[in-house]
Amino acid sequence: MNRSNWTGRSSDLGRMSLQDLLQAFVRTRAIQLYAALALVSVTAAIFLTTAPSRTALAAFVMVPVYPFAEYLIHRFILHNRALYRSPSTAATWKRIHFDHHQDPRKLEVLFGAVWTTLPTILVLTIPLGFTIDGAAGAMAAFAAGLLLFINYELCHCLQHLNYTPRSAILKRMKQLHLAHHFHNEQGNFGIVMFWVDRLFGTFYGSVTATPRSPTTFNLGYDRSEAARYPWVAELTGALPKERPSEPGSTSPSRQMGTS
């Protein structure tokens, strides 16, 4: 990734300032695409609506639905080991999650891949919105899904930035997500909200009370798995790393706010 695509400095979140990140965020083509589509969808919803309250409901219903989608996709798709075991899905799995766990500070693989995120948002929002209020509801729900995803992407970036949020809520959100990356990836699947983790029994608030996972950084794709299923390793050009690379990083305990 050409550094000029971000800030002209670095796409390593361990070295970027908050200002660097915000500049990179608004310059990212995927974020610009989501924002443009949201604007078009809101305009279409306003033009098409015959019952504004129903159209608004189609948008607001996405607020409680979105955390379930975030959780289920993260837990059962992004962490699904079957994906690296097939040559037809290995490259997608590598891009959408393995690379991120191998180096959680790398901005260019932190953002979701548009060819996977956009169809997912469409499938999650359009049918539900249409059921509530026809075409206007579909557009309103799609816009809400896009805006929620933009918020998700920003929060996710902040969680991996070498930065301590002033907000207690954001600080706690960051600690919980970094525990997923640096302590045990089999819990804390939420990014923005963790009440779904509580509902399904995968929430942990303390790293001292939770065993450390040996597969936190490789998601189970270790060297023995790479020998059996070589496609991800071949695309990477190297064997899976047991820990993220060190340059420009802060220590896991410091990032998790546990020290």
Could you explain the architecture of this structure?
- With 259 residues, the chain is mostly helical.
- It has one domain (3-255).
- It has helices spanning 18-27, 29-48, 52-60, 62-78, 90-102, 107-110, 114-160, 168-182, 195-200, 223-228, 231-236, 252-255.
- It is globular, with a radius of gyration of 19 Å.
Which class best fits the helix and strand makeup? mainly alpha
Q: Would you tell me the overall average pLDDT?
A: 90
How many angstroms separate the termini?
33 Å
Number of domains: 1
| Secondary-structure element string | HHHHHHHHHHHH
**Could you tell me the number of beta strands?**
0
Oligomer: single chain
Largest sheet: none
The radius of gyration over CA amounts to 19 Å
Number of helices: 12
Strand portion, in percent?
under 5%
The geometry reads as globular
Share of residues in helices: 55-70%
Poorly predicted spans: 1-9, 246-255
Quick recap of the structure?
The chain has helices at 18-27, 29-48, 52-60, 62-78, 90-102, 107-110, 114-160, 168-182, 195-200, 223-228, 231-236, 252-255.
Topology (SSEs and partners):
Blueprint: H1 18-27, H2 29-48, H3 52-60, H4 62-78, H5 90-102, H6 107-110, H7 114-160, H8 168-182, H9 195-200, H10 223-228, H11 231-236, H12 252-255
Helix pairs in contact: 2-7, 3-7, 4-7, 7-8
